[in-house]
Design goal:
Blueprint lengths: L2 E9 L3 H12 L4 E4 L56 E5 L4 E5 L18 H7 L5 H16 L6 H6 L4 H12 L4 E3 L6 H9 L26 H7 L3 E4 L2 E8 L5 E8 L5 E14 L2 H14 L12 E4 L3 E7 L16 E5 L7 E6 L9 E8 L7 E4 L4 E4 L3 H22 L2 E2 L10 E2 L2 E2 L3 E3 L18 E3 L14 H18 L4
Parallel strand pairs: 1-2, 1-9, 2-6, 4-19, 9-21
Antiparallel strand pairs: 3-4, 5-12, 7-8, 8-9, 10-20, 11-14, 11-17, 11-18, 12-13, 13-14, 15-16
């Protein structure tokens, strides 16, 4: 196949990739972004780009015949999941033996499907996780830069206290306060002025219409509207979609060669392309980047990759749970899908937990308080290459998930005891009270300072870089995209200053 040359190639278009694309474009370097998902900018027959959560169609999930929503059941009935057509939909659930990982697919990666919570970790915990990074500089320069670029804003506290759309959050806050626990507002990239217009009936509803995991049609500042729009605006950046990079090699002259499969909307490979570049940036996310490099090392394509490539992976301690409130503690039929508050017990050294108060918009009163807990689970797993399937297998075990559950359980047992309430048994299947078999926050696999130097330069391979969540060592204590973005900003500033000088 013909070789298509670009000075710089970025694989993926999530947070790390989007930062790389913008900063390369601004530096005047012609850059090609290769994304396996589609560009989400064209309305379907219903006039909307994304499908709704209540009536999902082919646009919802990545080549599935049935949706696989995080909450499979309600009152033990399979009310949530629906049959759909196979299509490159926006949300993927990647299955490993004891852990499923949700990721976004499309131009914008996870920003298309996530809850928009834009949280900066406590500086002390960041410093603990990244001992080789100057935390003072991160908090004075790169975190603020990331927040500004991402369009982070906060809910108006007066509106929050009065609106029916956040009754569920206020009810969970009261239950936490009864247990002596602190809650804190968390910023978001959803435009809260737009949300207030939704509530007033003067703007088309998105967050107030249940939209989130299958994409928001309005209101959310996903990466295609921020970093990637700015990257395209430099005139130096091009994006190819529906192309999945399968192999990375290094040529004798030190340039990198990529093999990519271009697929059509049925998933059939319609063309296999070769690309070549001088600078290669890996932004396929924790799963995507780690798989590419584990495969490259084990097939002999990049044999000098460090032994730590594939290691140091964690779930950010993710575990989900639901509580049943008393009949008088209503959560409301109307719920905004954008979380704005967390229970912050991270400073409790005996059992650090940060729990996001999550929405469960069902259009009817159900008295459920739902939470996504981030626990300080120290367990880590590794990816290994499976030649039979040419894919990376994750060695995470059920016992490692149980560590997250026991930490979350300590916190929610306290809340239940203080409120004389119980867990919900009907939400996650098998009468489980904690969902411990999936996560939203895959982190690690190519940890900063181990698989790479302290800026994301891959050890052993000049001009090969990592910019995404695979750099984060398995845990960051809060929702991760602000940290991923800020670390990418830091890495790109250094790389552009030192490595690409003419
Ligand atoms: P990603 O955003 O995952 O982007 C990687 C991109 O690369 C994808 O588009 C993928 O299709 C593409 N790709 C991968 N491999 C290849 C390949 N071989 N070839 C071509 N393309 C490839 N985080 C928060 O901070 N706040 C939240 O509120 C929040 N809520 C979430 C809710 C959900 C439902 C989910 C799934 C995640 C949530 N997250 C949240 C997590 C957050 O979205 C991720 O941490 C973040 O997107 C990771 O960024 P990244 O740059 O590492 O990669």
């Amino acid at each position: 196949a013909a070789v298509d040359n670009a000075p710089a190639i970025v694989i993926g278009s999530g947070y790390g990739a989007a930062v790389a694309a913008l900063r390369l474009g601004q530096a005047g370097i012609r850059t090609l972004v290769i994304e396996m998902g589609r560009l989400w900018n064209t309305a379907g027959s219903d006039g909307k780009v994304f499908c709704s959560t209540s009536a999902p169609d082919q646009r919802s999930m990545w080549f599935r015949t049935r949706t696989e929503a995080p909450l499979a059941t309600f009152l033990w009935l399979d009310l949530v999941n629906k049959d759909i057509g196979r299509y490159p939909g926006v949300l993927d659930r990647v299955h490993y033996d004891h852990m499923s990982v949700y990721v976004g697919r499309g131009v914008g990666g996870g920003s298309l499907v996530n809850g928009g919570m834009a949280v900066t970790p406590p500086q002390a915990y960041f410093a603990e996780q990244f001992p080789g990074v100057d935390a003072t500089e991160m908090y004075s320069t790169y975190f603020p830069r990331a927040r500004t670029m991402l369009g982070v804003n906060t809910v108006d506290p007066t509106w929050f206290e009065s609106t029916e759309w956040y009754k569920f959050t206020r009810t969970s806050r009261k239950a936490a306060a009864n247990a002596g626990l602190k809650t804190t507002f968390v910023p978001n990239v959803y435009d809260f002025s737009y949300m207030q217009r939704e509530a007033a009936g003067t703007a088309t509803k998105s967050a107030l219409a249940g939209e989130v995991i299958y994409g928001n049609n309005y209101g959310k500042k996903s990466l295609d509207k921020t970093y990637l729009a700015a990257a395209l605006g430099t005139g130096n950046v091009t994006i190819h979609t529906l192309e999945r990079v399968r192999a990375v090699q290094r040529a004798a002259d030190g340039t990198y060669t990529l093999t990519a499969d271009r697929i059509d909307v049925t998933g059939a490979v319609v063309e296999t392309k070769q690309y070549s570049c001088t600078y290669l940036f890996l932004g396929g996310g924790s799963l995507g980047t780690t798989e590419l490099l584990v495969r490259a090392r084990e097939t002999g394509a990049l044999p000098a990759l460090d032994a730590s490539v594939g290691a140091g992976w964690g779930t950010n301690g993710n575990v989900m749970t639901g509580r049943a409130n008393h009949i008088w503690d209503t959560v409301g039929a109307n719920q905004s899908t954008m979380p704005v508050m967390g229970i912050d017990d991270w400073a409790n050294t005996a059992n650090p937990v940060f729990a996001e108060i999550a929405p469960l918009p069902m259009g009817l009163e159900h008295w459920i308080s739902l939470y996504l807990a981030i626990t300080k689970n120290p367990e880590r797993a590794s990816f290994t290459y499976d030649a039979a399937t040419d894919s990376a297998k994750l060695g995470w075990t059920a016992a490692q998930s149980a560590v997250s559950v026991s930490m979350a359980k300590k916190l929610f047992d306290r809340i239940n005891a203080a409120n004389a309430t119980i867990y919900r048994y009907d939400l996650f299947g098998d009468n489980k009270t904690f969902a411990d078999d999936f996560c939203y926050h895959p982190l690690g696999g190519c940890v900063l300072g181990r698989a790479t130097d302290n800026y994301g330069r891959v050890k052993g391979y000049p001009h090969l870089y990592i910019t995404d969540g695979s750099l984060v060592p398995g845990s960051i204590g809060v929702n991760p995209f602000v940290t991923i973005t800020a670390l990418a900003e830091r890495g790109m500033a250094r790389i552009l200053a030192e490595d690409t000088a003419p």
